[in-house]
Amino acid sequence: MSTELIDRVSERLSYFNVKIAHIFTETALEPDLGAKVEDLPLGGNLKQMLKQVGIHRLYKFQEEAYNKISHGNNVMIVSGTGTGKTEAFLIPLLDLALKGERSVLVYPTKALARDQLERVRRLASPLGVEMGVFDGDTPEKERKRLYENPPHILITNPDMIHIGLPLSYRFRRLIRTADHFVFDEVHSYDGVLGSHIRMISDRLRELTDYHVIGSSATIDASPYLFEELFGVKGEIIYGSPRRKGVAIHALLNIGSASRWTLSAYLTAFLVKEGYKVLTFVDSQQMAELIAKITARFGEENIHVHRAGINKEDRLKVEESIKSGKIKGVIATPTLELGIDIGDLDVVIMAENPPNYTKYLQRAGRAGRRSKIGYIFTLLGEDPIDTYYLRKPTEFFNRKVLPLTFDVSNKEVVKIHAAAYLAEKGSLRLGRVIPKAWVKAYEELVKDGKVKIENNVVSALPPLYSYVRSTYLRSTGPIVGLYDRDGNRLGERELPVALYDIYPQAIYFISKRNYIVEDVKLDSLRATLRRAKDDLSYYTKPVYSTHLLSFEEIEERKVFGLPVKYGISEIMISVDGFATYEISGNKNKPKQEFFYKEPIIFTYTTKGVLIKHPILEEFNEFDSIEAYHATEHVLISSARVVAGASMTDLAGISYPTGHVVIYDSVVGGSGVSKLLYDRLEEAYDISIDITGKCDCEDGCPKCIYSPYCGNNNKMLSRRKSHRLMTKIKLGEFDNSVEQNINGKPIV
Asked: In this protein, which residues make up the domain named Helicase C-terminal (predicted)?
């Protein structure tokens, strides 16, 4: 069966001159067995219930988790999708519930929390263990029930905890009287959300200690990571990387073909063949585009699941794919987590995921419930794709990276310091309160939201409105998207919103075309109007970025180069836009248009500042081509060494040899710090990419970027390779100090 499907796919894709570059067959055995349920010190009712649902023996890692959790140890359970990690923490918590102790299960999203309800209820209800879900959608009657009779197990999400603790005394009591806290799907807590989770944990433990349990799919976990994420010490328990069964992974060499067209074709073909298919893409707009293209291949019953669309639409898609009403879904990482959407036969990755952890998580959705899973990953003319096409075995032998998040993000610290003060009313600024929180309170004094007298900080009325307006899913301002009648269509976060939302931009929502009429950053509002569905072009912004200031945090040498990591103030100026034919050259715009007044947004983040040498054989134009290309390829290499997505980092190059690579979110995400720590490896990969590409002097396979602000002008692969090779060999003179100067190139 497996060979037959692979052969049919290979035959079909040959029409597009696409070849299967590599096949990897993954076979996972059952995890090592542990103690029999009968031999565990569990209550009789719990033993009987476990046997009734078919659990007669625990896996070894489940037994270890039971022993440690029962004794109050902080642990993180790391095991693959469908391997029993939920049971690993749930069985000991049920045992504790029968003794009168209460637990709070925290899931990253409302959808996932409610999805897990039935799974928990299956084990809890026969025991008489009370449970409930508390989130923004919980009706008032149910909230009252939970307040009056706190359940043994409460399921919620970080957003509810964030707002509920300071603004509802009844919710506060519900949470503060719990004995144990579980954070499931820890692998999703990277970037800004990881920073928020650390602050949530600090608030839950009231800056002292508490019993916390983490549960995660495969990540590079360590006691250090545990303490960074939760603020307390903990142990790591490893299970199995993948559920029992077989998965067949195929890497597709698509060459210069459109990955969006091929993803749409492959999705439509497999759905017609009777397979249930989930296609992943990292861009919201590309998810919409792929879904639109599938209709051209005769399959219109394929839907989009992504952030930024109405909750009702997402729930409808989840229910429809689970029930079998639809057979295909195009999704952003919103379906990467463990939401139950039933059996899936095939996962298609329209682009190489940002890191191997995400690849494993997405691939794990295929072949669940002991079925063979098929995973097709499209690799095209992209620097990292071509790198792995040359080294396909390395693709599957990659290291699983740790989570990346920045616990010093000032914007995040400010939000949670404010929320904690709103809960307490006043705080004495002693040794317990972190220095970063004290600085945040000093900023809030300037904003008129708090006051500090005699070393005591107190909340003022404006603080509560501020806390109510804060979000955990972002640190940047949120731009609301509206139609001409004022109906809300969605939202996007700044600054990344400016890649898609600018005057005359083509924007897709639920497979429908819209044109952005105007963008008002002062009121955080964009107006869109419906456009024809058969438009023959799409748009990209023409923009420039500027480093306004840089405050050094630390410095080191990389191959003799001075490299700094620090706080970066960035200004983005969207100066116009370019149009591209859908069926034309994606690297060459059809036309460019410029605004009378640019759209400007300024924000503070964190980044890396590198001072490259000026080579004697290069004139000024040669130098900027080399620096600009080096900036592009280093950002590409960060996808390997730092697990960055294509939009996690951005960069600026200067004629003086300075290259700035910074986090694309307000306050910083931690990705640029990981690049800073692993910059030598990034240069090695960049030298490999620029040295082995067979193009004349630059192409999408080596130095072109789809997010280049000037549409990939002023780039040279050869000069970048020469520059980095000389740096690696130490054949340069960088002794002359020079300040950043000249017109920036992005």
From this structure: 265-413
- Whether residue 741 is contained in a domain is answered as no
The strand pairing partners of 427, in sequence order, are 457
Instruction: Give 262's DSSP letter.
Output: H
User: Average pLDDT for residues 117-129, to the nearest whole number?
Assistant: 90
Q: How is 336-401 classified by DSSP, letter by letter? A: TS--------EEEESS--SSHHHHHHHHTTTTTTT--EEEEEEEESSHHHHHHHHSHHHHHTPPPP
Look at residues 345, 341, 338 and name the one whose alpha carbon lies nearest to residue 372: 345
DSSP 745: B
Average of per-residue pLDDT values in the chain: 91
Residue type, 106: V
Cβ atoms 543, 746 nearer than 8 A: yes
Determine contact, residues 305/331, Cβ cutoff 8 Å.
yes
The SS3 of residue 429 is coil
| Model pLDDT, residue 369 | 57
* 205, 250, 438, 448 from 417: Cα distances, Å: 14, 48, 8, 15
Longest dimension (CA), the chain: 81
Name the residue range of residue 462's domain.
410-468
Q: Which long-range contacts (CB under 8 A, 24 or more apart) does 165-174 make?
A: 165/203, 165/419, 165/420, 165/423, 166/419, 166/420, 166/422, 166/423, 166/464, 166/467, 167/422, 167/464, 167/467, 167/468, 170/143, 171/134, 171/147, 172/423, 173/147, 174/134, 174/146, 174/147, 174/150
Convert the pLDDT of each residue in 181-219 to its tens digit: 999 999 889 888 999 999 999 999 998 899 999 999 878
Q: CA separation (Å) from 689 to 531, 630, 710?
A: 41, 11, 22
Bridge-based pairing state of the strands 537-558 and 561-581: antiparallel
CB-CB contact of 426 with 459 (8 Å): yes
Task: Tell me what the mean pLDDT of segment 656-674 comes to.
Answer: 93
Q: Which of 173, 205, 238 is the last residue of a domain?
A: 238
Q: Are 592 and 705 in contact (CB under 8 A)?
A: no
* CB 31 within 8 Å of CB 256: no
Average pLDDT over residues 724-746: 81
The verdict on 72 and 192 lying in the same domain is: yes
Q: pTM for the complete prediction?
A: 0.83
Tokens of 415: 């939000």
Whether residues 616 and 710 share a domain: the answer is yes
Helix 85-97 with 60-70: angle, nearest 10 deg: 30
Angle, in degrees to the nearest 10, between helices 158-167 and 410-424: 40
CATH number at residue 432: 1.10.10
Q: Do residues 212 and 425 make contact, with C-beta atoms less than 8 angstroms apart?
A: no
64 and 7 together in one domain: no
Residue 304: which H helix or E strand, with range? strand 302-305
Cβ-proximal residues to 522 (8 Å cutoff; 6+ apart), any chain? none
Phi, psi of 550 (to 5 degrees): -145, 125
Instruction: Name the token pair of 498.
Output: 């400016």
Q: List helix spans (H) across 434-515.
A: 435-446, 461-468
Does residue 403 form part of some domain?
Answer: no
Q: Report the interhelical angle of 140-148 vs 169-176 (nearest 10°).
A: 50
Which stretch of 162-176, 256-270, 570-584 has the lowest confidence by average pLDDT? 570-584
- Quote the radius of gyration of the chain (alpha carbons, Å): 26
C-alpha closest to that of 129 among 184, 158, 91: 91
Given the DSSP bridges, would you call strands 19-28 and 33-36 parallel, antiparallel or unpaired? unpaired
Give the C-alpha separation, 228 to 212, whole Å. 13
Phi first, then psi, for residue 667 (nearest 5°) are 90, -25
pLDDT digits (tens, 9 = 90+) for 584-641: 666 678 899 999 999 999 999 999 999 999 898 999 999 999 999 999 999 999 998 9
Task: Pull the structure tokens for residue 161.
Answer: 């905890």
Query: Are residues 68 and 119 part of one domain?
Result: yes
Cis bond leading into 139, ω under 30°?
Answer: no
